[in-house]
Design brief:
Length: 364
């Protein structure tokens, strides 16, 4: 009895499935697609202080070049689009599109500019002859100090003779001797000042000033080179967008070459014999109320090692598409000439179910 009941349940279930299948319309094949530019250039920030520019060529986006812009972690970096550049702007290869503003480098530039100006003024002063005139002035002061000393010396000797004969007191002699010692000290001060003035304009001092100026100029040149390298030009002609293809990586800028743009449609392998060049496809873009019609240009079978299977790739060139749709880059492709018949699919599923049931009966 249980056997007949199982037969009855299977027949009833098959009838219900068949009824709903017959009520279902035949649908066109629908597959996801992603747009591919013939060439594009992106600047992305993968981690704090690190910006990477990638130049990608060809439909498979082969890496043509990588440039890394690295800043200190304590630096404050701002990115500024070049004047006139905005979302959707057309640019040519070599155009200035972006500038990195480094607060640290700009402050370093101002500090080094002040240092260069100071060292230059010092060297100019050393070479101008002003210091030599100061040496001449120092020699005059030494001569004056000696003149004052020797002019006072006879007076002191005369007072000593008067003291020896008892005409003046010892205090008066000591007062004059202190004045003489003071004038002798003035000679030492004048000579020390003269030596300092001579050293200030010596060849060693001038060479040192030149070396300090050269070092400061080199440091300023290096900072200017860094700032110039952060004025970014695009190697690709195309349109500018800041739409990111990877939400986990911040895209600063992307330049997409629109000539041409291809839609790469990914379909299951069992449609490899049906998808052929020349078939018409209707492309509907995600996040855009836009539908575009194109024709398949080429078909290839591409293995997907991680999934252990292969898929069909169909390339469809598209033109005259708004850039807002191109920047979204993804959508759904419908191929009207390839139908998905739910009736036959369901029959195949029922056939598989029936074969499994029969196998179970044989085992019993």
């Amino acid at each position: 009895m249980w056997l007949w009941l199982r037969y009855f349940l299977i027949i009833a279930l098959s009838g219900v499935v068949l009824y709903f299948v017959l009520q279902t319309d035949v649908a066109a094949l629908k597959c996801p697609f992603e747009l591919e530019a013939s060439e594009q250039w992106t600047i992305q920030q993968e981690r704090p202080g690190d910006f990477i520019a990638k130049h990608l060529k060809g439909r498979m986006q082969a890496l043509a070049g990588v440039t890394t812009f690295r800043f200190e972690r304590y630096d404050v970096v701002n990115t500024e689009l070049a004047p006139g550049i905005r979302e959707g702007s057309l640019v040519k290869a070599g155009d200035h599109v972006l500038t990195f503003r480094s607060l640290y480098d700009e402050s370093q530039k101002k500090m080094l500019q002040a240092k260069v100006e100071m060292y230059q003024a010092t060297l100019d002063n050393l070479l101008s002859g002003e210091l030599q005139s100061r040496v001449t002035e120092g020699e005059r002061l030494v001569t004056l100090a000696y003149t004052n000393y020797y002019s006072y010396l006879p007076l002191v000797e005369r007072r000593r003779e008067l003291f020896n004969t008892g005409y003046i007191s010892n205090d008066e002699v000591q007062q004059l001797e202190e004045e003489l010692n003071s004038r002798f000290a003035e000679i030492a001060v004048a000579e020390a000042d003269l030596n300092a003035r001579k050293m200030a304009c010596s060849s060693n001092v001038i060479n040192t000033a030149r070396a300090e100026l050269k070092v400061a100029q080199k440091e300023l040149e290096m900072v200017n080179d860094r700032l110039a390298a952060r004025t970014i030009t695009t190697p690709v002609s195309g349109r500018v967008t800041q739409v990111s293809l990877d939400p986990e990586i911040k895209t600063i800028l992307r330049v997409v070459n629109e000539d041409p743009i291809y839609a790469r449609v990914v379909a299951p392998l069992n449609f490899s014999n049906e998808i052929q060049p020349g078939l018409e496809a209707v492309l509907t873009f995600h996040n855009e109320d836009l539908t575009v019609t194109g024709r398949v240009e080429s078909v290839s079978i591409v293995p997907v090692p991680l999934m252990g299977l292969s898929v069909v790739h169909a390339l469809i060139p598209i033109r005259d598409v708004p850039f807002s749709a191109i920047s979204s880059m993804t959508g759904e492709a419908s191929i009207p000439s390839i139908k998905i018949d739910p009736f036959h699919s369901s029959l195949a599923a029922l056939r598989s179910l029936y074969e499994k049931f029969c196998n179970s009966l044989r085992k019993e």
